[in-house]
Structure formats: C-alpha cells, structure tokens
Design brief:
By secondary structure, this protein is mainly α. It has helices at about 5-30, 35-55, 80-120, 125-130, 130-140; strands spanning about 60-65, 65-70. It has two domains: about 5-80, no CATH class; about 85-140.
Length: about 140
C-alpha cells in the first residue's frame, strides 16, 4: 500500500511517540496522584487544541523548497480574499515604483551637486582628469 508523504510523516511521529511512551510508562506508576491528574488534564487540553487546529486547517507549509498558503479544505477563495490579494499586489507594485522613483531623484540630485561643484570651482574640470593633478593633491599640503 502506497502512502502519501504526509501519512508517512505521521506514521513516523506515531512510532516515535509510542516508543517514548513505552519508556515513560514504567515510571508513571511511581508518580503521585496529583501529578498524574495534572498530566491527564494537560493531555486532554492538548488533544482539544489539536482538534481545533485541524478543524481550521489553515496555514503555510513548504514542500521541496517552495512555500504555499493553504486556505482550508476548499480551494476557492471568496471575493473578499481575491480583493485583499489584489490590493496587496497593487500596493506592492506602487511601493516598488515609488522606491525606484525616489532613488532616481536622489541619484539626479547627487549628480547635479557634483556638476555644480565642478562648474563653480576655481579649477577647470579638465584638471581633475589630469593624473599629475591627483599626484599634486596628494603631495601638496593645502
């Protein structure tokens, strides 16, 4: 009989749980009654919590290096889900365009500042391209 990946993982978890329980059971008879009652209550709460979580069946799971969002048992998203997904995508695109525009403006301002500094300086722009001038700047104490 062929099992799905999820079933095999559940079987392995069950086996490990049973082996752990087999190791813990002999020591359980030595525990006081109060401790065993607290453990029983905690076990019941954990089982109830698991039932609630599996009833919702929503979350994210990864398989083979990819991540998928699961919206429950039905694969149909309601109109509100589609609207919110579309709105999120639209906001993402607008944000990326805004960041790109802001970076382009910043780059243009920086280039303009360099151009203004070069054009208003006492030296001609050709002096900065001269390798001898760079050596002059490094050796001269201005």
């Amino acid at each position: 009989m062929k099992h799905s990946r999820k079933t095999r993982l559940e079987l392995l978890a069950d086996r490990q749980g049973l082996s752990l329980a087999a190791r813990l059971n002999p020591a359980a008879s030595d525990l006081p009654h109060e401790v065993t009652e607290r453990l029983r209550a905690a076990r019941e709460r954990a089982l109830a919590s698991r039932k609630v979580q599996t009833a919702r069946a929503q979350g994210a799971y990864g398989m083979g290096g990819s991540l998928a969002l699961n919206h429950g048992d039905d694969d149909q998203m309601g109109w509100l889900g589609r609207l919110s997904s579309g709105l999120a995508l639209l906001l993402l695109v607008v944000g990326m365009l805004g960041i790109s525009e802001a970076q382009n403006d910043l780059r243009a301002r920086e280039l303009a500042e360099v151009d203004v500094a070069l054009l208003t300086d006492d030296l001609p722009p050709a002096a900065f391209a001269d390798p001898g001038f760079l050596q002059f700047l490094q050796t001269d104490d201005l």
